[in-house]
Structures are given as structure tokens and as C-alpha cells.
Design a protein that fits this description.
Largest sheet: 8 strands, parallel, barrel
Number of domains: 2
Order of helices and strands: HEHEHHEHEHEHHEHEEHH
Number of helices: 11
Radius of gyration: 20 Å
CATH superfamily of the largest domain: Phosphoenolpyruvate-binding domains
């Protein structure tokens, strides 16, 4: 990443054209965002996954618009170079295009996001087109769409059957034509993700979609080993911070109870 400039949406397409992979992670607070930005992450998503890894819910559904705005505001204060995208929560864009415009506008106006992400295809194409035409960049999201967990009955692999794979290709094309600047491909076969990535001019960001997407995204709490409720196959843990934090707290509890902390050098 250029040390002087903030990442822009046109640069993402340039990265795809050059074959440079796009590295993305999630954040929900200032300090995490600051660290990710400092480490050179290209794109930070304030995901509705915060409902699970930040707030302790079992799904992404409970998080609301005001909460997304709050988290995005906090993240924005920690970002200098990364592109910042806010997730549109369940029912913030499905009711009407007008409501979607209003809510997406809040992400840009109140929270200083660089764009928004919407799940789905056919039902949101008109909304995507409308948002893009008024200057709100949109990232699409197809394949496994967590906001549809109730109808999907869990977190299944999508696009395995030929007819489902063809439908996903059509959805990807339609989102590109509607003006999306990028599309997240979640939990689909690697060969299908490679085919979709090759046929689009906009970058694809994979999560559980193999190595040939134009970029990758993970939930930060997953890749750092902090969220232990479940571990999807596609998550590589780059650290085990959950265990490190627990061990550190145990040491602190021991030292307090044995009066080892604070010692003379830590007192006034």
C-alpha cells in the first residue's frame, strides 16, 4: 500500500487488473481499526458479524442501523489509509429503495464510510443502481448470505449444484451491471469462484471461496483466534489471542491476590 495515500475504489479495480490481491478484514472499534490500518490492510469492513463476535448474538440478524453507525464512527477514527466499508444490516435496505438510500447515506454522512455492502442480488439490484447513481459506492455479497440464515437453515455451501452455480454467475453479472464496485463471494466452490472472478471486470473478495478470488476477507476475531464458538474450514488462525488473553488475565488475578502486583516500582 502506498504510504502516502488512502486506498480508493478505483485502485481496487487497478489491483485486479495488475493481479495484485486485495487483503480485507473486519473491525468494530477504534483500536482494532488503527492496528489493521497500520499493518497495511487494503479494506476494512464494519461487518454485521459484529452482532456475533462483538455483541454475543447467535446470528448477524439482531444488529441495527444505529449500532452499525456507532461502530463505523469508531472505526473511521482509526483509519487513515484503508478503504472503509459499512455493512448494511438486515431490514435496513430491503423494505424500499428510499429507505436504503436514507440508511446508506447515514453511513457516508454520519460515519464517514467510503461505501456500503448489501447482501443478495435480484431483490436489491434496483437499490444498488440507485445508490451508485447518487454517489454511494456499493459492494455486493452473494453465495452464502448470513442474513438469510433462517431460510437457508444454517451455513451451507452454495453453488455446488450446476443450476445453483449458473444462478450465482448470473447474480454476479447483474450486480456488476447495476454498478457494484466489488462482490463478496462467500462459501462457494473454488472453481466457481475462479470462474466468476475471471468473467467480471470488478474485483471479487472471497471468504471460503478459494484462492483465485481477487481478494480475501476474514472476520478479524476468527483469524486472531479470539472467537471460539465455531471455526469454519476456511478460517486460518494467525494467532491464538483468546488463549493469550486468558493466560494474561489469570496471571494478573494471581498477582493481585498474592500482592505481587503492584510492587514498589509500580507504586508512587
Amino acid at each position: 500500500m502506498d504510504t502516502m495515500d488512502k486506498r480508493t475504489i478505483p485502485q481496487l479495480r487497478e489491483m485486479k487488473e495488475k493481479g495484485e490481491k486485495i487483503a480485507c478484514l473486519t473491525a468494530y472499534d477504534y483500536l482494532t481499526a488503527h492496528l489493521l490500518d497500520k499493518a497495511g490492510i487494503d479494506l476494512i469492513l464494519v461487518g454485521d458479524s459484529g452482532a456475533m463476535v462483538f455483541a454475543g448474538h447467535e446470528t448477524t440478524l439482531p444488529i441495527n442501523m444505529d449500532q452499525i453507525i456507532y461502530h463505523t464512527q469508531a472505526v473511521a477514527r482509526g483509519v487513515k489509509k484503508s478503504l472503509l466499508i459499512a455493512d448494511m444490516p438486515f431490514l435496513s435496505y430491503q423494505v424500499s429503495t428510499e429507505e436504503a438510500v436514507r440508511n446508506a447515506g447515514r453511513c457516508m454522512k454520519e460515519a464517514n464510510a467510503d461505501g456500503v455492502k448489501l447482501e443478495g442480488s435480484a431483490p436489491v439490484l434496483e437499490t444498488v443502481h440507485r445508490l451508485v447513481t447518487i454517489g454511494i459506492p456499493v459492494m455486493g455479497h452473494i453465495g452464502l448470505t448470513p442474513q438469510s440464515i433462517r431460510s437457508l437453515g444454517g451455513y451451507p455451501l452454495r453453488g455446488k449444484r450446476p443450476e445453483e452455480a449458473e444462478a450465482l454467475k448470473q447474480e454476479a453479472r447483474a450486480l456488476e451491471e447495476a454498478g457494484a464496485f466489488s462482490i463478496v463471494l462467500e462459501k462457494i466452490p473454488a472453481d466457481l469462484a475462479a470462474e466468476i472472478s475471471k468473467m467480471l471486470t470488478i474485483p471479487t473478495i472471497g471468504i471460503g471461496a478459494g484462492p483465485q478470488c481477487d481478494g480475501q476477507i476474514l472476520v478479524t476475531h476468527d483469524m486472531l483466534g479470539m472467537f471460539e464458538a465455531f471455526k469454519p474450514k476456511f478460517v486460518r488462525r494467525y494467532a491464538e489471542l483468546g488463549k493469550s488473553i486468558e493466560d494474561a488475565v489469570r496471571d494478573y488475578v494471581r498477582d493481585v491476590k498474592t500482592t505481587e502486583y503492584p510492587d514498589k516500582s509500580e507504586s508512587y
